[in-house]
Amino acid sequence: MSSRSEAITCEFCIALQVRVLYCITGASSLVLKPKTTDDVSRIMAHCDKRHLAVVPQGGNTGLVGGSVPVFDEVVLSTALMNKILDLDEISGVVTCQAGCILETLDDHVAERGLAMPLDLGAKASCHIGGNVSTSAGGLRLIRYGSLHGSVLGLEAVLASGEVLDCMSGMRKDNTGYDLKQLLIGSEGTLGVVTKVAILCPSRPAAVNVALLACNSFADVLKTLQKGKAMLSEILSAFELIDSASMMAVEKYLHLRNPLSSGEFYCLIETSGSHAGHDEEKLTAFLDSVMEEGSVCDGTVAQGITQQKDLWALRERVAEALLREGYTYKYDVSLPTRHFYDIVVDMRRHLAGAAVLGCYGYGHVGDGNVHLNVTTRQYDADVGHRIEPYVFEWVRGRHGSISAEHGLGFKKRDFIHYSKAASAVAWMKRFKTLMDPNGILNPYKTLPE
Amino acid sequence: MGVLGPKMAFRVLVGCKRVIDYAVKVRVKPDKTGVVTDGVKHSLNPFDEIAIEEAVRLKEKKIATEIVAVSCGPPKCQEVLRTALAMGADRGIHIEVPDEEYASLQPIHVSKILAKLAAQEEASMIIVGKQAIDDDCNQTAQMTAAFLDWPQATFASKIEKTNGDLLVTREVDGGLETIKVKLPAVLSTDLRLNEPRYATLPNIMKAKKKKIDKKKPADLGVDITQHVEVLKVEEPPVRQAGVIIENAEQLVSKLREAGHIQ
């Protein structure tokens, strides 16, 4: 192994093995921190020869246990692969190693008037390689699309140690099969992403954040439709916080809800190049929804600090629920009209169980709801009442049982609720083809 | 305005300055004549926001009868007046100062303007932020009081009205000081006075219909000739990295090297 890299054992292992929301712990005793693609290639070749299992790990902020070892797999951390290699101002393409932290990349491209095309709560810790490997969604997907669109090129090391070079800075490239699409979202089971080239949009010069209160979910849908129609190209986020989630951030984190009424809260953000133009559109939109009664109260942030405070009401819900007890987390995609039905049905379904609360919040703009159920501590009975009911419910609406979090360790066995058996069979064939010895992130993503 | 009966008008004048937003990373211009303001997010000076909030609370307690927000500067200042109106101020006054002259506008000019306005508007109280977060001058309240020969209560963290006086708790080095000042008076706000409200939609809409009068400093007989010339603006020196020292001998030799000891 290259002497330039580091092999660290003992105390680092504990930190790297405990999943961010305290659910899963593995028992690895070796963490490797390569610095270059070549290092990764030698590590994988060695492990493949000796049939040693490897868990690629970025910021370890995943929510389905995809980045932690289950047994004694070797942890391959991208922490030291954090070089930004290039930024093309004209095309807006940033090229970097997989271990760059998302926020660091965003700060870097900001200096050239650009922004990273995704944003999520874990931005200060997550690595771009991990984001790409899980095809992270985030808060602004309705504006900037998914990583399947914004990743223009990537480089990955396969199980054998072979370097798969799919690097490109081209917006359009129809030369053969687009292999990188297979790797995006493959959760480190088909290859270790080592380099990425990402298309960055212009950084908005004018940002507005508004929090609106609605009395019913039907009103939320009306507001959403109006927002898409009237705010149109400047709409950059449309998030939902239900009243239970709002009460949680008020109670456990002492955050301030500026609105006094409302069953549902919509956090809306606009991003554009011209403050006057955006304000005019926003004012017209607010006038319209207030007049027709779909919005009963609301506020527009005055200043950046108020914008951050309003965003915190949405971004810190998960943290607030952690304070309540153990959280059963579900991240599902549904037809937007059914977004909140799952929460209502789950509440009804769990009535009488030892449940503290049932919460629904998330990306109502793209139909992705975060359903959370809390109990005092982990309760297997409650777990069985929720699953597989929740997955069957989602299947019934032809939704996805994991919108953006991925399958990882926790949800691998539920893949058939959202994917046809034949599709899963082909996934397994690809896995066998690319990782014949099954050393890359075993026990993850695909069922046994 | 409705009939007030025996109660007198209690008009509060609130100074509102448009400054670079608190959360923005400020950059010095390459020519070192100032900081970059083009395309940079601006908002109402946080301490002035606290002043507006306090004035609105006084009105809600039926102590104040009218709140007039004042801002001096180029047309963009109307943005902060709109914020003040959305929070509950009744009307605004924009003292028009064009960009070139605004660059050299100082607290001494602003305080003369506020003093003249207070007389014109028959104000019972002037409240401003203790300082603006761009220049950190902390002078306007004090100078305004001097020009009017009114009492001043600065760094207020609590304001109570008792008959014709105000009981004001001030934040001072070493603790809190409570003083009684006769009205009319000039106050400046400190951080812990209150937590400003969010402007809610109905009020934001109403604010668009509220009046903003325009005046020029000359209309008030105030001369805003430049008093101060900025020679150079620089970033603070980059913090030097520290050095970790192994033992006392090394410390002594390093101190000697740097010339701190013989």
UniProtKB/TrEMBL annotation, chain A:
Gene3D superfamilies: 3.30.465.10, 3.30.70.2190, 3.30.70.2740, Uridine Diphospho-n-acetylenolpyruvylglucosamine Reductase, domain 2, Vanillyl-alcohol Oxidase, Chain A, domain 4
Catalytic activity: (R)-malate + A = oxaloacetate + AH2
Cited SUPFAM superfamilies: FAD-binding/transporter-associated domain-like, FAD-linked oxidases, C-terminal domain
Top EC group: oxidoreductase
Cofactor: FAD
Domain of life: Eukaryota
Enzyme Commission identifier(s): 1.1.99.39
Keywords, in A-Z order: FAD, Flavoprotein, Oxidoreductase
Family: Belongs to the FAD-binding oxidoreductase/transferase type 4 family.
Function field: Catalyzes the oxidation of D-2-hydroxyglutarate (D-2-HG) to alpha-ketoglutarate. Also catalyzes the oxidation of other D-2-hydroxyacids, such as D-malate (D-MAL) and D-lactate (D-LAC). Exhibits high activities towards D-2-HG and D-MAL but a very weak activity towards D-LAC.
Protein name: D-2-hydroxyglutarate dehydrogenase, mitochondrial
Species, as recorded: Priapulus caudatus (Priapulid worm)
UniProtKB/TrEMBL annotation, chain B:
InterPro entries xref list: ET-Flavoprotein_bsu_CS, ETF_a/b_N, ETF_b, ETF_beta_N, Rossmann-like_a/b/a_fold
Compartmental location: Mitochondrion matrix
Keyword Disulfide bond: no
Entry-linked SUPFAM superfamilies: Adenine nucleotide alpha hydrolases-like (SSF52402)
Gene3D superfamilies: HUPs
CDD domains membership: ETF_beta
Domain of life: Eukaryota
Keywords from the UniProt entry: Electron transport, Mitochondrion, Transport
Chain ranges of the Electron transfer flavoprotein alpha/beta-subunit N-terminal domain: 32-224
Pfam families linked: ETF
Family according to the record: Belongs to the ETF beta-subunit/FixA family.
Subunit structure comment from the entry: Heterodimer composed of ETFA and ETFB. Identified in a complex that contains ETFA, ETFB and ETFRF1. Interacts with ACADM.
Function: The electron transfer flavoprotein serves as a specific electron acceptor for several dehydrogenases, including five acyl-CoA dehydrogenases, glutaryl-CoA and sarcosine dehydrogenase. It transfers the electrons to the main mitochondrial respiratory chain via ETF-ubiquinone oxidoreductase (ETF dehydrogenase).
Protein name: Electron transfer flavoprotein subunit beta
Gene name of this polypeptide: LOC106821289
